[in-house]
Amino acid sequence: MKAVTVKNLTKKFGDLKAVDSISFDIEKGEIFGLLGPNGAGKTTTISMLATMKNPTSGKALIFGHDILKSQDGVRKSIGIVFQDQSLDEELTAWENMDFHGRLYRIDKETRNERTEELLKLVGLFERKDDLVKTFSGGMRRRLEIARGLLHRPKVLFLDEPTLGLDPQTRNYLWEYIEKLNQDYKISIIITTHYMEEADRLCDRIGIIDKGKIVAMDTPENLKSKIGGDIITIKSPDYREKLSSNRFWWSDKQEFSNGFFTITLSNAEEHLTEIISQLTKLKVTITSVSMHRPTLEDVFLHYTGRRIRDEEADFKDRMRMTMHKRPGRH
Ligand SMILES: Nc1ncnc2c1ncn2[C@@H]1O[C@H](COP(=O)(O)OP(=O)(O)OP(=O)(O)O)[C@@H](O)[C@H]1O
User: Fold this and answer.
1) Quick check: 35 and 306 in contact, CB under 8 A?
2) In this structure, which topology does domain 4-222 adopt according to CATH?
3) Ligand 1 neighbours (beta carbon < 6 A)
4) Domain ranges of the chain
5) What gap in Å lies between CA 119 and CA 109, rounded to an integer?
6) What is the residue with the minimal CA distance to atom 3 of ligand 1?
7) I need a labelling partner for 237 at 20 to 30 A (CA). Which of 16, 43, 143, 267 fits?
8) Is the pTM here over 0.90, yes or no?
9) How far is the CA of 326 from the centre of ligand 1 (A)?
């Protein structure tokens, strides 16, 4: 049986199709990523799968439980860590876990056993008696993940698990996520707008834009489908200086957000010539870089746009500011 089956799932808010007829399957033990910019429809998708929002149309099953007809069955099968923190800051780590266990009617002995095991898994056992309000952002996120696993879900939803965390904490969290996937063999659905996160963690990725899945495969296959190497030239006036010019060196050229991107094989052999041609045409070149295709290139290839990192970073900063406000739970 598939862990998750999604068929033509759609969610409309008024005229807006936030999720537009998406379909995918997830295997048992697989880490599946939904990668896309802010507003792409990632949170809405997992809210429907977690029975928190009803779809406008379409169907989804979690280990055979229909998200509309068997909501209890779905809820028992899933653990959720959403973007907004939902821990009680005035309770200790242990108390937060215990409270959650009671909600799921887990008996005391099992609760204690699992709480100890999970707090050890996420490296918080030593801090079990400390109030959550003394925890850093990364520790809180780890505690939320441990809590989401307490009732032994078969599928774990992680909505932007490392949003707003610094790179080092993000790395630690990735290690914990990998470890729990290996130790518990649970299926994990991650939403993220961080390409590196999707690349590192996910067995397969669905690239989502404006409510639609535009590509779906393993990170490696997605990148290799791009073909060749990528040369990125930052230039404010490329478009105006070259207008409709196309060069022999590649039929794959994109211009987006002030960056001119050329895809071709053996890029290093052609780089000097490309730069000299552009210089002759008086194109202003601010910087040049050359790399193997990344998931950002994959996104650009399928959508003609970049994942708007600036906007995402702005959102991260806003969230951090909000979380630092005293008294926020
Ligand atoms: N309750 C709602 N009412 C109206 N529009 C909504 C609602 N929830 C989401 N949307 C809209 O649906 C679209 C998809 O939002 P969603 O939150 O699923 O995106 P996302 O990919 O998760 O991005 P983010 O990480 O910013 O949350 C956006 O245009 C958003 O404004």
Assistant:
1) no
2) Rossmann fold (3.40.50)
3) 13, 16, 18, 36, 38-44, 160
4) 4-222, 228-292
5) 16
6) 13
7) 267
8) no
9) 27
